Amino acid sequence: MNVEVKTYRKGEIPGIIAIDGQNCRGCDACKRYCPTGAITGMFGATHRIDRDRCISCGQCLINCPFGAPYETVDTVEEVQAKLGDKRYTVAAIIAPAVRVAVGEPFGLPAGSLVTGKMYGAMRKAGFVIVDNNFAADLTIMEEGTEFIQRARHALFGEKAEHGGEIGPLPQFTSCCPAWVRFVETNYPSLIPHLSSAKSPQQMAGAVAKTYGAERIFKVDPEFIYTVGVMPCTAKKFEASRPEFQSACNFVKERGGASPGTPYPDVDTVLTTRDLARLLKRMKIDLAAENNAEGGTLFAEYTGAGTIFGNTGGVMEAALRTAYVVLTGNNLAKLEFEEVRGLRGVKSASIQLRDAKYGKDVTLKVAVVHDIRANIRPIVEDVLAGRSPYHFIEVMNCPGGCINGGGQPICDTGSSWIGRILPSFAWS
Amino acid sequence: MSEKKKPYDYVESPFMLTRREFVIIGGIIIALLAVPVVWLRSALVNRNYYIKARTKGLYQDDVSSKIRMSHENPAIARFYKEFAGHPLSAVSEELLHTTYVNRMNALS
Ligand code: SF4
Ligand code: SF4
Ligand code: SF4
User: Fold this and answer.
1) Ligand located closest to A63 CA
2) C-alpha distances in angstroms, B108 versus A7, A17, A38?
3) Is A238 an active-site residue?
């Protein structure tokens, strides 16, 4: 197993997904979901994952009919121990897509929206709530402002306020860590096109340990333990990226106590599946919980933040704010139907008048999900300089994060066939 | 096996399949190949059911939210007022923005 890996830096978890050779029947199904061609193995033989190509999206895991792929990182016990340690404030950073899926392992119908029950169950377990929807709103502020800056620079030659560099158009979203790693390993020349905004998870971690520590929780940031609760396996990798110690550096620079060991912005990540397992271990039945409030400033979120979990959601949220900022007017209708739904590539043109420059502009945006099937032509156009778009949202998983690799499996893929036909196959 | 007499003698070779054997074995192979295809199709139908149900859940959350635009979130306003100043400020750049690395050269 100790094959050397080349596309990981020191400190990064080298691949979140591995295939258990005992369970793999070599049926090839996973290959048809893998966006990077990282899975190798002949039909009928045990398959393996090339970790250097893998972007840890977990699509193979949720779609394998035999439950052979597994996560290499499981911190459920560690989180439970921290919850029992009174010195720590354990902050759960809960992604939008979790609230419409975590009910499923507790017997609620698919897609049930259980924000209140989820808050109740998690507060009972001892978490404080940092809703990642709050951070999604923050992402829109940063990424949306960045987009407006890039657009005005490209269209009207506007200069950066502090004379810094302004990135090129089209701007790509950067909240999907599988997409980011896809760019880094396959199309590094696109890096300047990626929004410099961190993903909501990483913003939430950095904010919780700085502003949150100082003003909201009023504790030493070293004793805030941040737990991403994500529909996503790639988020486990993202949290381990070495640059994401910005809160620690920020506090140190401002003369805060220098910690013994530097702490990451996000200490660990649980998938939706992990969260269900943790709650069950703690004998908390989410389905039976009463609706509760989040109870902190960081639980206040808007409808724009919550739709981040759907394909097209980031774009729609960004357009709602960008429209108002650019025109100074309100939108007659908040819904951008063109960017919703399951078509592989969705696009929209928005005509508006930039109030600052008094000029009419047409913004062209595109939304891509299911990288495996849909990204290549979009990327080739950008590389060739012929992309018609100004802003492009990319989410690795088909449908967006609601179908992420960390979501409950139920009967969407894994293992059901193994249960029905244990001796099926060619193995 | 064919019962009818043919005008010529049919010599059965152990290395040749009779027509019927060919059809049966071919059928088995096709069936085996088809299993993943059928499975895949039913898995996709199933998957789309979950995708649609969860998607609906989030749009429902949006519609039932009192505030539906990020810049109107009062908690966000407070964060900028008390801490970061404004989007793309120096504090924002330090805490909320990042850089990326080229990992392609490491791949052959
Ligand atoms: S059993 Fe699972 S991991 Fe193995 S080839 Fe089939 S889908 Fe892939
Ligand atoms: S985690 Fe994603 S990229 Fe990695 S092998 Fe599985 S499907 Fe492919
Ligand atoms: S689409 Fe969402 S769940 Fe899937 S890899 Fe990207 S961030 Fe993770």
Assistant:
1) 1
2) 11, 22, 14
3) yes
Protein residue with its CA nearest to atom 4 in ligand 1? A24
Asked if A227 contacts A127 with a C-beta cutoff of 8 angstroms, the reply is: yes
- Would you give per-residue pLDDT tens digits along chain A (427 residues)? 456 789 999 999 999 999 999 999 999 999 999 999 999 999 999 999 999 999 999 999 999 989 999 999 999 999 999 999 999 999 999 999 999 999 999 999 999 999 999 999 999 999 999 999 999 999 999 999 999 999 999 999 998 876 678 999 999 999 999 999 999 999 999 999 999 999 999 999 999 999 999 999 999 999 999 999 999 999 999 999 999 999 999 999 887 766 678 899 999 999 999 999 999 999 999 999 999 999 999 999 999 999 999 999 999 999 999 999 999 999 999 999 999 999 999 999 999 999 999 999 999 999 999 999 999 999 999 999 999 999 999 999 999 999 999 999 865 444 444 334 333 333 3
The dotted CATH code for A76-134+199-302 is: 3.40.50.1780
Residues of chain A in contact with residue B103, where contact means CB-CB under 8 angstroms, are 7, 181, 184-185, 188
- Cβ of A65 and B43 within 8 Å? yes
Delimit the domains of chain A by residue range. 1-71, 76-134+199-302, 139-196+304-403
Kindly state if the Cβ of A69 falls inside 6 Å of ligand 1: yes
**Domain A139-196+304-403 has what CATH class?**
alpha beta
State ipTM: 0.93
Shortest alpha-carbon distance between residue A75 and chain B (Å): 26
Confirm or reject CATH 3.30.70.20 for domain A1-71, answering yes or no. yes
The Cα–Cα gap between A300 and A115 comes to 12
Tell me which chain A residue has its CA closest to the CA of residue B45. A412
Q: Determine whether the interchain pair A243/B95 forms a contact, defined as Cβ–Cβ distance below 8 Å.
A: no
What's the Cα-to-Cα distance from A221 to each of A19, A298, B9, rounded to whole Å? 37, 16, 92
Question: What is the spatial distance between Cα A178 and Cα A35, in angstroms, rounded to a whole number?
Answer: 10
Q: Is there a contact between B53 and A206 if contact means CB atoms under 8 Å apart?
A: no
Contact A35, A59 (CB under 8 A): yes
* A190–chain B Cβ distance below 8 A for any pair: no
Alpha carbon distance A395, A177 (integer Å): 9
